[in-house]
Design brief:
The chain has about 70 residues and is an alpha+beta fold. Helices cover about 25% and strands about 30% of the residues. Strands 1-2-3 form a three-stranded mixed sheet, with helices on one face. The longest helix has 17 residues.
Length: about 70
């Protein structure tokens, strides 16, 4: 993430099934959004997958590129 960006993205998905493990497509989508954001000077803060009682943060799990 850039130190001085004025714009940020945090993507959120809600999976009512409770399975918060990201699919291959979820990870690919996040990486595409991150690359597009880099070209426009927009930082992707995180991509959260939210279930009934838990969540998965791609940033916390090291899947989002620094």
């Amino acid at each position: 993430m850039g130190p001085h960006s004025d714009f940020y993205i945090c993507a959120n998905l809600y999976y009512p099934s409770g399975n918060v493990i990201p699919s291959k497509q979820d990870v690919q989508f996040t990486r595409r959004v991150q690359r597009c954001g880099e070209m426009m000077g927009i930082d992707v803060l995180d991509h959260l997958i939210i279930g009934q009682k838990q969540y998965f943060s791609l940033r916390e799990e090291g899947i989002l590129e620094e």
